[in-house]
Every structure is written in structure tokens, then in C-alpha cells.
Amino acid sequence: MSRSELIEAARGDRPLDVLIKNVNLVNVFTCEIYPADIGIYGERIALVAPAGAFELEAEQVMDGTGKWASPGFVDTHLHIESSMVTPANYAAAVLPLGTTAAVIDPHEIGNVLGMRGIRYMVEASEGLPLRVYIAVPTCVPAVPGKESAGAAFTAAEISEMLKWPRVIAAAEVMDYIGVVRGNQPISDIVQASLNAGVTIQGHSPLLSGRDLNAYLAAGIESDHEVKQGSECLEKLRLGMLPLLKKSSYGNMIKRVLSDLKKVPYMEIALCTDDVEPDGIISEGMMDNVLREVIANGIPPAFAYRWATLNGARHYHLKDQGGIAPGYLADILLLSSLEEVGVCDVFANGKQVVQNGRLTAEIKEPPVSIDARNTMHFHSRPTRETFMIKAPIASGKLDVNTIEMQEANLTVLRRVSVAVENHYLTLKGLPDDFCYLTVVPRHGQPHPAQTVLLSGLRMRRGTLAATVAHDSHNLLVVGHDPDDMLLAALELEKCGGGILFADGGKVLGKLELPVAGLMSPKSVAELAEENAVMNRIGRDWGIQDESPILSIAGLALLVIPEVRISDTLGLFDTIHQKKIPLFPEA
């Protein structure tokens, strides 16, 4: 389609392909809602006019009476790997929910397979009716020198990938302490992103004051990790774009918005970040985030702008995120504005969803990556891998441990622990205390690290996962080292995934053979397995929104304030240093 043809259709000298008449238009430019007619020609919008203002001719006419028209949702930051499916199966799941564009950060698979993994995500998302844009991972691993993954990206790799197709951003700069301190290699990576002229995503939970100013001065532009209203307000006032989210790891929207509503104007965008299959089916994606924002007092027209235009403009997608002449025809028809009831979806001018059901055929694009088991233990784990040797033969010792708290935060807790036969035991401790082990699974030669954990509230059994942000080594929490060993060896056999074991038996397993992160199954198929697994976790006492993902962030060294590193063990994420397991008296 040429622009001259589009102009002719707008002028009335050429019939429209599709006319949506008498629909309630959510105008995200002015935050008004009013009856309108929308004309589509080819993949673009040719005309938007007050309902009935012009005599319009079209090949297909849709009566929008009683419905609302919105731009398709722009998901400003997410990891498709967290949905545990391929990009094609992800597109099939989210298009009926209203997402027509997504900016993905494939750093999960990048930590496992390096640049081959990023190339896979580019290839596997090519030609889909969902517009998939790539944000190149900047922190692989998240904190270089303090942990290890299956790859390590420097400014050279970042610069090369920034030239790849559909790359529009540098993904979340998680090593925010390194940026503030001017550390290498993260400073070179940020500079390479600035040189390329792309948008730079941030990640700086609870960062404030001079340190926040320094982080923003480096060129960081957004943050999807705001935890508190006062934090979000400070970031807004300094020109940062908060990306509010509701994900499988929690919901900060109510807490954040209570403070934001005190200011006369707020520029916000929305994202999903990480949503597991069960969450996609039971709650939704961007539609779910939007419902939450509206439920917390944001007028619908403003909320829809947050879900569409603001994100598109942030990434300089100048012909997306709105319903206006010349814009790409990514349009939703909704039965309910507040409930975000998506009925019909147009993507690139073609109807891909009708009455809530996907009508477009979505095939897996060809990819160059070969399938292989990515579980590589340099030294096979043993029972002792999941135990902690003590400096005394018996008695009691003070031990530094990790205590989990709400909002994925953690604190250091000193506990007196019994020692038997040279090893720490859980005897006498509250019943939610567990062993926590991170096992290198990318062929690294160093040994596993084991610490003690409380606050998970898992009162029996073992939970193991290769979904372990962001280096995606193997994480195992449990009460019995024998069950923990069983879980590790079972996941090695199937190529990775998530597993529950107890009493020498595997009680539930979600196999993720693609890099230990994803499955070739559909979202609906995985959601059933996902739901069964979550029920086991809840029965064992885990109260997180997603029990199977409750431990996934425990090795993420960029979330306050104490985590486990595969190379250093207990790790202070604020001061970026190792914490001794046995504190000095």
C-alpha cells in the first residue's frame, strides 16, 4: 500500500477496506471519549471522524454501537520466557487480550545461551501478527564478577546486537549500583547504548537521592521496579518514566498510586514484566494491569493512554499507540471500558480476533538454534551439596540467613543453629526454615552454594527450578538434602523446569526443555500443569501469588537486600559484597 492510496482513501476518492462506525472512541491524545467512525485502508488508519460526519464507503462495515475503540495495548517491558512458551504461542495467548505490541527483554535466555539465545528470540518472533520489538539485554549476568551465567555480555556484544532487526532499546540496566559508581563494564554498556541512540530501560528498586540523580544522569529513562509511592513520585519528578506493572511476582499498583494521585499530572506507562501461564489464563496480561489501574481510581481515558500512547512514544514508535490518520491500524473493540472486555482485535489492519477468539493462524517461524539440553553440571551434585558444613563438630552456632519479606524483598537474619556431625541442621528452628542451594548448571567449575532461608513458609518438601533470575542456575529449597538431590537430578534429565519432591518421590513437574525456561506447548496446556503445581505449593504453605515462582528471585543480585550468589554465597546487594555465613562474635 502506498501513502498516496491512503491519502485517496482518507479523501474519499478510494473506498476504505474496513469501516468501524458509531463506536465510542477512546481518544488517548486528548483523553476524551466520544462517538466516532474509524476508517482503515491497508495496514493503516485513513480516517477518524465524529460519528456520521461523512458519507463513507468501505468493503467491510462493522457497527460499533455499544462498544469502545482503543488503540492496541503496548506492553513496555516483559520477558516472554516468563510465560514459559515460545514467542508464537505467546502471541496466540495475548492478542485476544488486547496486546498488539510488546517490547521484550530476552535476558533470561541470554543468560543461558548468550547471543545465540537473543538471536533465537529475534527469529522466533519474526512475522507474527503481534508486533515484537527487542530490548537488548545489558546485564548478562546481572552483576558481573559477583555471579556467573551461561554467557557474559560486554559493550562489544551489546553494540553488535543493537544493530539487529527490530531492536529499539537497551534492556533494563539492573546493575544500578555499578552505574552510580561508574564501574566497568556496565558504564561502557550504557555508553554504547547512548551512542546507538536507543531508549535505555532502567531497574533501580528503592533508589533515591543523589544516587538516583547519578543513575538518571547516566542516561537511564524508565523503571519498572518501583516499590513505593514516594519512590515513584521522586522518579517522576526527576523525569523518569515509571512502568507500573502487575505480574506473577506481585502487585505494587495500589501502593504506588496512592501517592501519585496527589500530583496534578503524571506520565506513566504500563507493563507486565513476568507472568506465568496460569496467570495469563486466569487474570490476563496488559488488560489485567489496566483493570488494576482503573480500580485504583485512575479515569479510564487516562489509564488507556498509559497502556498505549505513552509507551509507544517512549520508544519512538511514532505511528503506534493511537487511533489517528496515518497510524498503524492496531485497534481494539471492547464491550466494557472499566473491565477491559476485549471483543475484537485488528493488528496491522487485519482482524485477528473476533468475539474474543483468535482467528489468525500463527505458525512457528523458522529458527537457526538447535534443540539441546542446557543442564550441564561440571560436578554432579551429591547429598552433601545441599548441606552446610560447620566449623565445629556439634553444638550451636550463630549463622547469617536470608529472610524473605513482602514485595520480593529480603533481609539478613542472624539465627542460632544446631550442629550435628559437622553439619548445620534444621532441628529446633521454626518449621518454615529451609536449605537454599544454587547449583551452577552452565558447566561452571565452581561448587554449589548453600545457605539457610526463612519466610518462604514452605513447611515440607523440596521445590527446585531452573527459572532462577537472572543467571538461571538451578535453585533448590528444601528440608531434606536427599529430596533436594532427587529434584536436581530429575531436572537434569528433562532439560530443566520446576519440580516438587517429598519423601523420595517427585510430586509435580513442569518440564521446560527450551533452555530450561520454555516449552513448545501452548499457554493453555502449560497453564493446566502450572495450576496443579501451584496448588501443591499452596498446600505446603507457600502464600505467594505464584508459589512455583516464589524462589525465582532469590539469586537475583539486584533486588534489596540480601540474596544468594552461585560464586559467593550470601550476598549484600546494597554494598555489593559477600556476607560471611558464620558471623564474627
Let me know the CATH homologous superfamily of the largest domain: Metal-dependent hydrolases
- Number of strand segments: 30
Catalogue the unreliable spans.
none
Termini separation comes to: 76 Å
| Helix/strand/pairing category | alpha/beta
Description:
With 585 residues, the chain is an alpha/beta fold. It has 2 domains: 71-319, Alpha-Beta Barrel (TIM Barrel); 383-578, no CATH class. The protein has 16 helices and 30 strands. The strands form 5 sheets. Strands 1, 2, 3, 4, 5, 15, 16, 17 and 18 form a 9-stranded mixed beta sheet that branches. A 9-stranded mixed beta sheet has the order 21-20-19-23-22-25-24-26-27, sandwiched between helices. The longest helix has 17 residues, at 523-539. It is elongated. The termini are far apart.
Write the layout of secondary structure elements.
Elements: H1 3-11, E1 16-27, E2 32-41, E3 44-50, E4 58-63, E5 68-71, E6 73-78, H2 87-94, E7 99-104, H3 107-113, H4 115-124, E8 131-136, H5 155-161, E9 167-173, H6 176-181, H7 186-196, E10 199-202, H8 209-217, E11 222-223, H9 229-237, E12 241-247, E13 250-251, H10 253-260, E14 269-271, H11 277-282, H12 286-295, H13 300-307, H14 309-314, E15 331-334, E16 342-347, E17 350-354, E18 357-358, E19 395-404, E20 410-420, E21 423-424, E22 434-439, E23 449-454, E24 462-465, E25 474-478, H15 481-494, E26 497-502, E27 505-511, H16 523-539, E28 562-565, E29 569-572, E30 577-578
Parallel strand pairs: 1-4, 1-5, 6-7, 7-8, 8-9, 9-10, 11-12, 12-14, 19-23
Antiparallel strand pairs: 1-2, 2-3, 5-15, 12-13, 15-16, 16-17, 17-18, 19-20, 20-21, 22-23, 22-25, 24-25, 24-26, 26-27, 28-29, 29-30
